[in-house]
């Protein structure tokens, strides 16, 4: 009996410690959640131009980055064999360099339906580069007019740049709109069933589009995304708060996010907890799970998926693009200081992001994977298909990388063990 009493006392103390630890964690979580709610309400007020405590975070971001404001002026410029109409249709809101994060994205008029879910979740600046050769130009303007007519968020936040090959100019009588006139907005939008691009078998210069959208972004931090990727809500204020609390930093870095695909017909998840529930029911999978899992799985992906959601934004893991992840093609928040994309690559030839990843590896970048934030592809889980034309162009891309691009990169940036394209 005497031996049992100390054991019972120890057991009781252990239970009390566990209980107090759980209570403490619960209180901390509730405090963090309350603080996050205040942050988001401050951010919403700042977007409306009202005074808020969020301005203190922005001032700290400005101090840390030392960034300079960037103008938003329309201009026409030639880029190689392409004409570019920069800031052709501009957003109503303007941002100083430290005040937000800009999504930079790209496509043609057939992809513009993705702008609405993107801007509704982002509620911040978006810079879009649209490829519009020949008669696709007028179709692009029709689609933009429709979006701006029916969405105040598009009018406020989305700026469009249009580009086309010099050998495929728009029609002589270009359709023009007064984009500030929101009258006569049709409920339906009639667009061509096919594109000028496909009829003339043109390629899509995807990296040129990425660079056009990026160069016009007003903010220091930018988020290059494919147009069918939608971010988790309120990422901007959470990210800027994290930067304000943790900067400045001595090493070069970018901030990747986990990316997922969901089944057709499913509601796009709003938070990590919802993502985890969908993964458990096989309603969601990691991006390109059936096509090239190693290209997009973040390091420690399973741990990320099992780690409980917490308020705010944190760095989940710091990784290098080496070893098992030597061919990783992450989507990440970055800045204007990072290298531009190699404009020799096309969407049809694939592998368009690999070279930039290789350069960041050579420059010894840290990839600071974010927790509690993610991207979701437009609903519909992809499966691998065979396209003979794309495969032929991919073979040409592989040859170009081996014989031309890699030797040039070694001269420009040198070598680093473990870095590969």
TrEMBL record:
The gene is AUGUSTUS-3.0.2_15784. This is N-acetyllactosaminide beta-1,3-N-acetylglucosaminyltransferase-like Protein. It comes from Tribolium castaneum (Red flour beetle). PANTHER family: FI01434P-RELATED.
């Amino acid at each position: 009996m005497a031996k049992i009493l100390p054991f019972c006392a120890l057991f009781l103390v252990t239970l009390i410690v566990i209980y107090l630890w759980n209570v403490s964690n619960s209180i901390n979580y509730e405090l963090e959640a309350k603080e996050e709610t205040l942050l988001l309400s401050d951010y919403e007020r700042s977007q409306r131009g009202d005074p808020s405590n969020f301005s203190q975070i922005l001032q700290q971001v400005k101090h840390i980055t030392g960034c300079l404001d960037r103008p938003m002026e329309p201009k026409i410029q030639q880029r190689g064999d392409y004409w570019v109409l920069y800031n052709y249709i501009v957003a109503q809101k303007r941002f100083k360099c430290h005040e937000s994060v800009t999504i930079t994205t790209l496509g043609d008029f057939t992809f513009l339906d993705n702008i609405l879910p993107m801007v509704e979740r982002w509620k911040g600046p978006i810079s879009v580069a649209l490829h519009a050769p020949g008669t696709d130009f007028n179709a692009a303007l029709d689609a933009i007019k429709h979006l701006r007519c029916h969405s105040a968020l598009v009018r406020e936040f989305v700026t469009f740049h249009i580009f086309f090959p010099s050998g495929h100019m728009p029609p002589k009588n270009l359709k023009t709109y007064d984009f500030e006139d929101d009258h006569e907005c049709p409920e339906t939008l009639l667009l061509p069933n096919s594109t000028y691009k496909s009829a003339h078998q043109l390629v899509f210069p995807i990296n040129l589009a990425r660079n056009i959208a990026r160069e016009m972004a007003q903010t220091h931090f930018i988020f290059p995304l494919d147009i069918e990727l939608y971010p988790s809500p309120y990422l901007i204020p959470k990210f800027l708060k994290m930067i304000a609390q943790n900067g400045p930093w001595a090493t070069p870095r970018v901030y990747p996010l986990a990316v997922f695909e969901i089944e057709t017909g499913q509601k796009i998840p709003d938070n990590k907890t919802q993502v985890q529930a969908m993964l458990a029911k096989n309603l969601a999978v990691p991006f390109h799970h059936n096509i090239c899992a190693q290209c997009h799985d973040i390091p420690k992906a399973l741990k990320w998926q099992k780690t409980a959601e917490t308020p705010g934004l944190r760095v989940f893991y710091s990784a290098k693009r080496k070893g098992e992840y030597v061919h990783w093609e992450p989507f990440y928040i970055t800045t204007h200081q990072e290298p531009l994309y190699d404009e020799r690559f096309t969407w049809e030839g694939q592998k368009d992001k690999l070279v930039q990843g290789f350069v960041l590896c050579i420059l010894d970048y840290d990839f600071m994977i974010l927790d509690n934030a993610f991207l979701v592809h437009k609903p519909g889980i992809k499966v691998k298909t065979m396209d003979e034309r794309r495969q032929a162009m991919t073979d040409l891309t592989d040859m170009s990388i081996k014989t031309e691009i890699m030797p040039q990169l070694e001269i420009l940036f040198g070598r680093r063990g473990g870095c590969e394209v």
